[in-house]
Amino acid sequence: MPCAGSPYHGFTCYPNHCPSSAVNQCSYLSSQSLQSPIHNPERMRILTTPRRALTTPEKRDYISAVQCLQSQPSNLTSLLPGSISRFEDFLGTHIVSTNSVHFVGHFQPWHQYLVATYERELRQKCGYKGAQPYWDWTLDVTTNSSIFSAPVLDPDTGFGGNGPYVNNAFTPRLAIPGRTGGGCITSGPFANLTLHLGPGTNVENNPHCLTRDISPLVTNKALSFAAVNATLDAADFCSFDIAHGGVHLGIGGELGTIADVYSSPGDPLFYLHHAQMDRLWWKWQQMDPERRLKDIAGPDTGSRIRLISKGTGRLQECHDGF
Ligand SMILES: [Cu+2]
């Protein structure tokens, strides 16, 4: 039977099994997910716009549009009582969806859709004319300390840098090696940003700052060319594992906003990272588009059955990866 209206839209379920709870949780995912970007101008625009290649005025335009979104009133206060802006509506949507969109087969397309919707909002609400840029972090981990001088973290044309070091020796959550920060960021256009949703699952009004806790040990291991190449070598989606945590835990460390699985979109870098994730997925698909454009795998949100399509248009159980 066809899985209409779910992240698996267009797929035929096997054996006669639609991921029912995924349909409930994610019915707003349109058929644009999993669609070839050639037929989807929004996705194509994101996939072909590296942030590094933007001119300084273009970089400023993007950041101004994000700040504009942070000044637009929330449309979702009934669902997210603490939200004060459209920017926080996206953050809150991620918070309340987290448990059904992570560690599941539709993780990638759901986040792709979130980024595309965010980009559309920047354009429609804030007059942004450019594309949602992606952050190719492989170019920023060439030496042990190069992440600190990444253009994307520039205090003038970027998103600002690390927070000051906070000693967290007695309350470690994730045991991140080599963490260097943890406090409120002190530079860049978001140094004085107040977030109201999060940390964790909180969607009530809880003012707090944007924190980063960079660990070069984590970024350099997880975000290297070698790590990406290993990812792109995957034979099928079942074993396709993008270095997704490298930014969340390498930039967010132990105490940083972007390390919080629920409220990570409080850091505007989240969207540049997930645009890169989508780009790498697309690169992998392009190596064998016949099979890979419709190859998806992983647990659904209800039964957690491991499913894989292997490009056949049929979902099957996935026995490795995930
Ligand atoms: Cu997420």
Automatic annotation (TrEMBL):
Gene3D superfamilies cross-referenced by the UniProt entry: Di-copper center containing domain from catechol oxidase
All residue ranges annotated as the Tyrosinase copper-binding domain in the record: 267-278
Superkingdom classification of source: Eukaryota
InterPro entries: Di-copper_centre_dom_sf (IPR008922), Tyrosinase/Hemocyanin (IPR050316), Tyrosinase_Cu-bd (IPR002227)
Annotated keywords: Copper, Metal-binding
GO molecular function terms attached to this record: metal ion binding; oxidoreductase activity
Record-linked SUPFAM superfamilies: Di-copper centre-containing domain
Protein's recorded name: Similar to Tyrosinase acc. no. P55023
UniProt organism field: Pyronema omphalodes (strain CBS 100304) (Pyronema confluens)
